[in-house]
Every structure is written in structure tokens, then in C-alpha cells.
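Model the whole thing, not chain by chain.
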Amino acid sequence: MPGNPDRRVRRTRQAIQRALVELVLEKGYEAVTVTDVIDRADVGRSTFYAHFDGKQAVLFANLSEMAFLRPAISADGPPFAFSRAMFEHVLEQRRLVRALLGRRSGRAVTAHGEQVLRDLVRDELLARGAPASMSLELTVTCVVGAFMALLVRWVDEEITATPAELDEAFHAAVGPGVREMLARE
Amino acid sequence: MPGNPDRRVRRTRQAIQRALVELVLEKGYEAVTVTDVIDRADVGRSTFYAHFDGKQAVLFANLSEMAFLRPAISADGPPFAFSRAMFEHVLEQRRLVRALLGRRSGRAVTAHGEQVLRDLVRDELLARGAPASMSLELTVTCVVGAFMALLVRWVDEEITATPAELDEAFHAAVGPGVREMLARE
DNA sequence: TCTCCTCTCGAACAACCTGTTCCGTTATGT
DNA sequence: ACATAACGGAACAGGTTGTTCGAGAGGAGA
């Protein structure tokens, strides 16, 4: 009996989550309806709502299982080393990331992504000796804002660049400012 | 006969646009429906669709009449001088900006705002001697991303700060990087 | 003023979506 | 085998969008 819940529950939940990802890839998050999902998953409507509150709940259940957006932080080495790996990873998963973060996505999704990134960046700056303060939070917001803006425009193909170029631009833009801030301590 | 179109047309369009702003202030852009708007504007449904394609069209008609988000650029003086004035202005118009750009807003609205800002920032960097290139576009994206991230979190009250503090954080984060880029030429 | 033309109203409509309820049927775990 | 829990499926109320139609009101110009 692997996994506590009933096998039917596991199957149903998996079918629904799988269907959502497929549909998001095809139409973009915003355009997918609950009806689409239950048709694709071949699941009763009542069954769907017995497991999830709605589209967004399914998405979040999926996101928490996607580990590649939680890289480890490091206090030594160059700052924000996560970015290069993340751009590379996004290149592989381009279709999915585009569907989730791109123009046709919803606000909640990018907000979730920004939240995760902010925690990451804040932890790294703290580990490098920055004092916890409002000013730090503002800096974190700027760094994450710059990163996400690059990422979103990239997956939307508004800009064409390699992961290396993106990474370089990102570090060139916010790196000096962050280094100055850290040096002021 | 001021203004070419029929007086009825002027009245109708104005009533609709006014109603949208009111409702956006009350409920946030996303939550406002066309039905809400025509009820508030006291206008027939068919009349509404005779003038606008939908909610978003009304919004854009409004946005193009809001001039305060088009400050002049300057090639001398400190870079990105627009930011301070803009933070100040947003403070006055906080409710409206929040409704338009905040958590409960739609993607299209912020995308529109980012577009305007990108043109502004790009022009300023070009005026300061940066060569037009893909690398410039990446930098512009970072700068605007950082600015918008601050703005959005601020109007959403996720961060508390004065316009001066926001402005300082913004310049501290992206200023050094931009100066280095300009110096490299 | 008077006429013509445009705009507006209001209701009704089809089509779609969400979330809930009900109950008979089926699959599981023990 | 059997009690329990999950599933299916249809139907439902309530809400949304965008379109259509004809009748009536309003403006602009002569």
C-alpha cells in the first residue's frame, strides 16, 4: 500500500494534475477551464471538486512538486549564482514555463514564482552579511523584479538571447548595486 | 459643436469610462464585469458593445488619457530622474494605481505600463550614449522590471516606504550597473 | 421649426463557465 | 465478503459574455 491515500484518490488526483499541465501547454493557463480539465482527465465534475477548489488549487499542487525552481543558496562564490542554472533549466522546460509565466498566464502564478524567488534572494543576501531591514526588502524586490522581467520577456520571445547572455545582463544590471550595498556594511 | 462626435456619443463614452474607473477603484479591475459597468453607467448593453470591444478596450481608452505616466526624459542630470516624480505621483493617485496595477489587476494593464516605461528608459539610455543593441534591451528590461516590482509591491502594501526611500532603493539597485554599462562605451 | 439620420434602449437570446447536489454504482482495504 | 469510501453523471442555479432586433428618442443641419 504505497502512499497512504486510497489508490483511486491517487489515480484521480494524478489524472487531474496531468490533464492540467497538458492543457496549459496547449492553451496557456488562463484559457484552460475546469470543464476542459475534467474532460481531459476523464473524471466526473463532482469528483474534481471533491479534490480541488478549482483550477488554481490544481496548479499549486503541481508547483509544489516542481523542485527545479528551488536551487540551493551559497554564501561564497559569485552572488546570485542561481540565475544561470535557472535560465538553463527554463530553456529545457521552455514550453511549460512559457505557459505558466508568459503573457497568457495568470497573475497568481507569477506571484507564486516571485514569492519563491524573493525568499531565495533574501536568504542569500542575509547569508552574505546584509542586515535584515526594510532597505534589504526593497533591494530583494528590485533584484527579483529584474530577473522575472527578463525571464518573462524571454519565454514570450520578446527578446532573443542565450541563457549566458541573459545571465550576464542580469548580473551586470543588479550586481554592482548589490555589491555596493554589501560593502557598505 | 465642441468635439466632432455626436453629443450622445460623447456622453455615452464618458459615462462608461467614468463607471469603469469608479468600479475599478471599488473592486479592482479583474472583479469588474461588463454588466457592472453598464449598470453603473446606466447604458444599454448593446450601446456598450457599440462603443467598445469589452472591458479592456475601455481601460485602454482611459489609460491613453492619463498623462502623468509620461514624464519627460533628460540626458543630463542623474539617470532615471523620472522615478522619484513617479513614486510621488503614485502616492497621490494611490487608490487608482493600486486598482490598476495591484494584485487584483489584470495582466494586460501592467503589460501596458511596462511598455510605456521601457520606451522611456530606453530613450534615456540612448540619449546618454548607449548604443542600440540587444544588450541594451536586456538592461532596459531589468531596470523596468525592478521599478515595476517596487511599485506593485508598494501599492499592494506588501512593503511600507516613502517615495524617497523607494527612489533611493531603486537607484541603489540598478544605478551602479547602468553607470558601469554607460562607462564601458 | 422641421426633417432626416444616428444613436440608444431594452429585452431576449445562445453559449459558455462555475460550483453544488443527488444518488446509484464501483472499487478498495481489511 | 463486506463495510466504507470514492466515483460517475446528470441536472441544477447563478453568473458571464457578446449579439441581435425593432421601436423610440435625440441631435445636427437646413
